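Our platform keeps sequence and structure together, in a single record for each protein. This encoding replaces a full spatial description with a residue-level series of whole-number codes. We quote a single record here, exactly as it is kept in our systems:
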Amino acid sequence: MGSYVPQSPEETKEMLTFLGLSSVDDLYRDVPEKVYLKKVSIPQGKSEMEVLREIEKTGAKNRRFTSIFRGAGAYCHYIPAIVKQVIAKEAFRTTYTPYQAEISQGILQSIFEYQTMIAELTGLDVSNASVYDGATAAAEAVFMCLERKKNKVLVSGAVHPQILEVMKTYCESRRVELAVIPVKEGRTDTEAAGKMADAETAALFFQNPNFYGLIEDGDSLTAAAHDVKAKAVMSVSPLSLGLLKTPGEYGADIAVGDGQELGLPLSFGGPYMGFMTCREKLMRKLPGRIVGETTDSRGNRCYVLTLQAREQHIRREKASSNICSNEALCTMASGAYMAALGPGGMKEAAEQCYAKAHYLAGELEKAGFPLKYKGPFFDEFVTESPLPPKDVEKLLAGEGILGGLPLEGDILWCATEMNSRGDMDRLVSILKGGISHGASV
């Protein structure tokens, strides 16, 4: 997506007036003011070396956690060394859209191989070259489903709140009706979904595992969509597909998700990338770049950007999306990650996440943190808390541990292959100590 930079104060004022804002600072009004850096307090006249020392001194104040038990959309996984080595190559560092296929065969092939692996992982036919993140992919996916007489979207209330907010923003801008399906015992209420779906429903969107970590009844939700000739759209944890049923096996029409789990570090929240796959019949509605395989005039295999006529290049007035870029360096990392692990490695990583999360849940329950919901889960789960969740967060932070995400009176925990049994036992021991002291920390 292109960017616009005002060229003069007058243009800046015009832009702000159009957006209904009074100042440039209003663009950041959703960012907590306490994290603003309004001034760097470094005296004038310092040398480069002295400035570097000052910055390093400031950076040393950052808290680095030795153990992480939080997911909620961004997960700590082991990244094989080969992944970083691959994306460090100069030829791959500038991976912007390869318009000139004749001199971009390496980049195009890497994207094609990524697309192939993502399609196989989700059990669907076609993948694009990625979009900005998982939330963007979710919103773009439901727009793929809209038709002239179908302008309503049903979204599970158990999806990640940030995904839901992005989808609401998209739908409001296009005057698309968005209705939220109620949650029952931590999972999407399938009975309510069936009643809410009607002839005007274009898509039914759900997340599996959902925000609370529970595995949804994907068969029933997909059937509820298809009963009214709507599309079923699944947001999935890509690593979980090494163990759980794929969107293709559930009968979903579109699958989306965030590729952060596939070889991308946490990195303070980004950059990540969103993946999108669909059935062949929806291929021409799939937004973003798609790389295809063909042959040249000599019969040699080669790669090109394909199906571009459905986008801005030629038929702009018919485009279903204004996304015209991709996260190619991130997909390069994800492709290297999937190739390094292979199907067996993906399954083993998923099995470790599953086993460790269930061990942690059992130990937490013994310590006085019972499961909030009793349904099956993968690597995340919600517990009740005998202490205020924020107090638990502070208690663990003081021990170098990033605990679960505080919810309203509860805590959303996560365990991955990175958490050893010793890490989990230490976590539980600290919590038992906190409970015995009964202290607000």
